[in-house]
Amino acid sequence: MRKQVFCFxxxxxxxxxxxxxxxxxxxxxxxxxxxxxxxGDASRADAIYKEHVAPVxxxxxxxxxxxxxxxxxxxxxxxWRRLEYMTGTDMDKMVDARSGLIKAMDAPEHAxxxxxxxxxCSSHDDYIWSSKASSQAADAVAKVRSPVSMSTxxxxxxxxxxxxxxxxxxxxxxxxxxxxxxxxxxxxxxEHLVGGKYRRLLVLDAASPKAALKHWAGLWGEFxxxxxxxxxxxxxxxxxxxxxxxxxxxx
Length: 251
Fold this sequence. Notes:
Oligomer: single chain
Shape: globular
């Protein structure tokens, strides 16, 4: 936790200079930390999070500084093994919550456990996301979630704003219908504000890994059939991606 504060402080300072999180309408922001952990010991990180971190985040939520928080376990995908996140609609309050968490974890009653946590999950990637389109209201994102999340992290090489427009006008109606049909629980499309190479993120919550994979297998074919030109153009803009399935059942 101590190591994370310096990374976030630097990038948040850059954002603050340009008021990058200012929005005309409420938007959901997500502060996400993706951990690379020693696989055999990752369950120890789960226990430390539950005992030491979650109670602090619960207090931050009760105080109104964040709207929701969570911890996810890797089920399928790349090198990231665990995901810690918090959401909200007020970035200033979220920064205060993050700072409060880090300060709390430096306290004597938590410090030893966090040292162990940092040995188990010795590296991480930090991202801040902002919601561009969703099946949920801004203040409802991540408050109630299905047990599984299919998350696709896109690398986009050209007109990201055009990709956003395609999602809102062509893909969103399909996804909204899938929510109505109970194929998925919810969906969210996020833009990158801070972090690494991934520029856009599509999150689809589902009842199980089978449900997530079944939905994913048919989604892009349906998109291509319904809106072939939009599907083609989207693939040109966001031309590579990494897929993860996260287990949220421990929250």
